[in-house]
Design goal:
Keywords: Transcription, Transcription regulation. This protein has helices at residues 24-34, 95-106, 117-123, 139-145, 170-184, 186-196, 217-235, 243-250, 254-265, 269-287, 292-298, 304-315, 319-326; strands at residues 12-17, 46-52, 58-60, 64-66, 70-71, 80-83, 111-113, 131-132, 150-151, 157-160, 163-166. With 330 residues, the chain is α/β, with parallel strands linked by helices. α1 (24-34) links the parallel β1 and β2 (46-52). α5 packs antiparallel against α6 (186-196). The two termini are 19 Å apart.
């Protein structure tokens, strides 16, 4: 989804695709992100509709039901279609649902799936020849049952030509907030994240959540030390920090520090620092009228040119265009 802040003064239309067997947790995540009116706190307006083959209550695992309020054809007129995960990843999905997803995608509507919802998109053929991710415990099954899908084993979420997939459970929150951030800016996503008492974005991969032996006392101590280092770095983003600086704060060699950092967070120290600098710059661009060189300085980029390069690499836009899109959003 491309940034389009000025076009989002009217409610963004979100279609939640519902059919028997969808997971209640994913439905709750979608409803929490897009179904709660937070315009009084500065968040953008959303119109969330529950689209199903008919108006009969949709049964979910655990004895819960969901009441649809739109037919499936509404998905082709939405701004975004979101598919929850499913309880049975090999069960046939109702053909009307698959047809609706294909029609929406052909109409240029971005389509996103949470967790095992990737299997639904795969049944619809939307992942053929595309990169996709699902829960780490399901990647082998997705590859075996849908060999035309290029399964990414450890990402939190992946986009390929307007089709989004997310890894397990909490990664669905990450994707939903990222989709808000892409359409409305970092501040809008942060407002929703604060309301949900969750991080507005996480770095790293789902590799950090794969089952491992219980950490030793030394590993737990290293993890606590790294958390303190990250907190200290966030307070000093304007400084030209290096991996050697962070390692010194942790009392480790740079090589040992990088190894422990990657094992704990799923990303490298340099990648983490750059992600934090970009996020800080996004907030300053949305909240202030500071000139570009000052934004770059406060976020530790050193120069506006460097900041522009990192914005292009991570957000596919420039700082000036980002401010133009999102400065007045709210």
């Amino acid at each position: 989804m491309q940034p389009n802040g000025t076009a989002r003064r009217t409610a963004q239309r979100i279609a939640l695709v519902a059919f028997p067997g969808i997971r209640a947790f994913d439905v709750a995540v979608i409803a929490e992100v897009w179904g709660v009116d937070r315009t009084g706190r500065g968040a953008p307006p959303f119109e969330l509709r529950r689209c199903a083959p008919d108006r009969a209550p949709v049964r979910m695992p655990g004895g819960l039901t969901l009441t649809p309020d739109q037919a499936l054809d509404w998905t082709a007129t939405a701004d975004l279609v979101v598919v929850p995960g499913v309880d049975d990843h090999l069960a046939p999905v109702p053909e009307p649902v698959l047809d609706a997803l294909r029609t929406a995608q052909r109409a240029g509507v971005p389509v996103a799936a949470l967790c095992g919802g990737a299997f639904v998109l795969a049944q619809a053929g939307l992942l053929d020849g595309r990169r996709a991710v699902t829960h780490w415990n399901l990647t082998t099954l997705l590859s075996a049952t849908h060999p035309d899908v290029e399964v990414v084993p450890d990402a939190l979420f992946v986009e390929d030509d307007g089709v989004w997939t997310a890894a397990g459970v909490a990664a669905g929150i990450d994707l939903c907030l990222h989709l808000v951030r892409s359409a409305h800016g970092a501040e809008a996503a942060a407002t929703i994240a604060r309301s949900m008492v969750t991080a507005p974005f996480r770095t790293g991969t789902q590799a950090q959540f794969i089952e491992h032996p219980a950490p030793t006392a030394a590993e737990r101590e290293a993890s606590d030390t790294l958390a303190a280092v990250r907190e200290r770095a966030l307070r000093r983003l304007s400084e030209p920090l290096t991996v050697a600086d962070l390692a010194r704060w942790a009392g480790m060699s740079p090589r040992s520090f990088a190894r422990h950092f990657t094992a704990t967070t799923g990303t490298t120290p340099i990648q983490w620092l750059l992600d934090q600098r970009v996020a800080a710059a996004q907030q300053l661009l949305e909240r202030t009228d500071l000139p570009m060189p000052e934004v770059a300085r406060r976020c530790g980029f050193g120069s506006e040119v460097t900041m522009r390069q990192h914005f292009a690499a991570r957000l596919a836009t420039s700082p000036r265009d980002y401010r133009r899109s999102f400065r007045a959003v709210g």
